[in-house]
């Protein structure tokens, strides 16, 4: 797939209210990212099983790596860091352990430590797609779009099957109004992770920005069917209702989004508009 430059400006955004909603696409979901670190689940039972493995083989770095991933999925970040530190001390040549620790640092707001760990992972394995994808997210959230795009392009050139590479490149294109390219990338992310709502939400916003309400509405409804507990999906659905002039349905969907996330600003603002 050829590289495409990032244009400047927000040409192509058809609805002013899309701007705050598109901005909310810039966040990343810890549960989704952690699931890519390792297949280990964050349940107490699974953590207990991994702890038993460590008791039997206390010098096995991968056991700490796996339990660290499980702690990460459970939101127990300090314990995850300790396990990844131990895994690295036992095997300082493991790019996976550095990338895993970087992810936890990022969720704790330690961006410089995360960046250092991703750099180390890439120096150990220049073909490690996960590290490029993780580092790109730090760049993207810091506004370093060109650096983020370069890392995502590198991961895609390495034939990654990680949907985050396409989803996040889609966000970069979306933010600069390049919606046809964004839609293409979101579609690829959907093909790689059809059971996740995020690609549908991203593609729906780009459809809506192009005036394609029907496809946008279909994508938002699909996102809700896949996971009814994502506030963004309900707020996006409400945006279509609002654009159609159905304030009652829009208010209902915005209200549902706020029930799921009381701090979700686009839903709060949307509910104020539709109830005014």
Automatic annotation (TrEMBL):
Signal peptide stretch: 1-22
Domain of life: Bacteria
Entry annotated with the keyword Magnesium: no
Keyword Membrane: no
UniProtKB keywords: Repeat, Signal, TPR repeat
Pfam families in the record: TPR_1 (PF00515), TPR_11 (PF13414), TPR_8 (PF13181)
TPR repeats: 61-94, 95-128, 163-196, 197-230, 231-264
InterPro entries, A to Z: TPR-like_helical_dom_sf (IPR011990), TPR_rpt (IPR019734), Ycf3 (IPR050498)
PANTHER family: TETRATRICOPEPTIDE REPEAT PROTEIN 6, UDP-N-ACETYLGLUCOSAMINE--PEPTIDE N-ACETYLGLUCOSAMINYLTRANSFERASE SPINDLY-RELATED
Protein name as catalogued: Tetratricopeptide repeat protein
Native source species: Nitratireductor aquimarinus
């Amino acid at each position: 797939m050829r590289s495409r430059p990032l244009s400047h400006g927000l040409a192509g955004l058809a609805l002013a209210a899309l701007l705050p909603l598109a901005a909310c696409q810039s966040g990343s979901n810890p549960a989704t990212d952690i699931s890519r670190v390792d297949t280990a689940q964050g349940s107490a039972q699974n953590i207990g099983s991994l702890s038993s493995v460590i008791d039997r083989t206390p010098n096995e770095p991968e056991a700490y790596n796996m339990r660290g991933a499980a702690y990460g999925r459970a939101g127990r970040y300090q314990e995850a860091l300790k396990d990844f530190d131990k895994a690295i001390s036992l095997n300082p040549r493991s790019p996976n352990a550095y990338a895993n620790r970087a992810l936890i640092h990022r969720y704790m707001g330690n961006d410089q430590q995360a960046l250092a760990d991703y750099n180390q992972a890439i120096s150990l394995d220049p073909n490690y797609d996960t590290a490029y994808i993780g580092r790109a997210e730090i760049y993207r959230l810091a506004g370093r779009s060109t650096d983020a795009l370069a890392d995502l392009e590198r991961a895609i050139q390495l034939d990654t099957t990680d949907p985050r590479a396409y989803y996040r490149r889609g966000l970069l294109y979306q933010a600069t109004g390049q919606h046809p390219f964004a839609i293409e990338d979101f579609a690829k992310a959907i093909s790689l992770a059809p059971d996740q709502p995020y690609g549908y939400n991203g593609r729906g916003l780009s459809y809506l920005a192009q005036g394609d309400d029907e496809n946008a509405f279909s994508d938002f409804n699909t996102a809700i069917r896949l996971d009814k507990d994502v506030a963004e999906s309900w707020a996006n659905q409400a945006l279509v209702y609002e654009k159609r002039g159905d304030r009652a349905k829009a208010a209902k969907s915005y209200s549902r989004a706020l029930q799921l996330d009381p701090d979700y600003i686009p839903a709060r603002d949307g509910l104020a508009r539709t109830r005014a």
